[in-house]
Amino acid sequence: MKRKSLDTEKCPIARTLDVIGDWWSLLIVRDAFLGKRRFSEFHKSLGLAKNILCMRLQKLALHGIFEAVPAPCGSAYQEYALTEKGRRLYLVLVALRQWGETFLFKEGDLDLLLVDRESGQPVKPLELRSQDGRLLGPADLRTINTSDR
Amino acid sequence: MKRKSLDTEKCPIARTLDVIGDWWSLLIVRDAFLGKRRFSEFHKSLGLAKNILCMRLQKLALHGIFEAVPAPCGSAYQEYALTEKGRRLYLVLVALRQWGETFLFKEGDLDLLLVDRESGQPVKPLELRSQDGRLLGPADLRTINTSDR
């Protein structure tokens, strides 16, 4: 299926999905957060075809989510490091993770926990708040056109 | 490409992406938040092939994100309504939206704003906090195995 590109869409969700909205790209970004940097490390972790991995990494680099950096110690290989733009995807990954923890795991089935480095304690659920500090649920939101303000 | 199913994976991110991690599914969920309920409404909004839309809606219903409900007024059509599980995806959509707003739009280019219904003001950026209330950035996190605790 040829996918219609939504990169010029007005919706920021659609535009983001155009950049990172395939299954593999977010898993590559997840692996980078887990410390992986080399093509061979991503390949071993994800088990996807090398040509697909190569295309995904190139696309992510093109969009400034990764940058290719020389490997240490004069190795001929290059490594892939998350940029600041890439690191700011952590909230997307946390949102995916917490939804999955809540709805896709049975009690006691969860082996991996996201913790705060300093305390070693699990992080709190993500919070969306209003300007005056109220916690916002899905029914509290709406989308408006800026020209209507 | 045949995709390896990650639904038995231990990682909640991978498991979530197995359910909603294709480009269209999240846009269908987004449209549902915008009030769309009928097949024809999703079709008109997204412009994807009817057979693909049908498969996506069926998969989302199978996973309990949508439920098929009879349309009002005795119409022969059915409608698709988000379940509680589906509505809890709002934080995933907000995280995608806010990242896109920050990194994929130029100043003044943003036409749509996510606002809090009560005040009409834009929502605050999502916050991830530690149990003792510290704001956590990407460098403050790590993943541990529950058996290591």
Keywords:
homodimer, about 150 residues, alpha+beta, two-stranded antiparallel sheet, 4 strands, about 40% helix
What's the arrangement of secondary structure elements?
The structure is a homodimer of 149-residue chains.
Chain A: H1 12-20, H2 23-33, H3 39-46, H4 50-62, E1 66-70, E2 78-82, H5 84-87, H6 90-103, E3 112-116, E4 141-145
Query: What is the percent of helical residues of chain A?
Result: 25-40%
Side-by-side strand order of the widest sheet of chain A: 1-2
Structural class by secondary-structure content of chain A: alpha+beta
Strand content of chain A: 5-15%
- Uncertain regions spanning at least 5 consecutive residues of chain A: none
In whole angstroms, the N-to-C terminal distance of chain A is 39 Å
Instruction: Provide the gyration radius of chain A in Å.
Output: 18 Å
User: What's the overall geometry of chain A?
Assistant: globular
Overall pLDDT of chain A = 88
Give a brief rundown of this model.
2 copies of one chain form a homodimer. With 149 residues, chain A is α+β, with helices and mostly antiparallel strands.
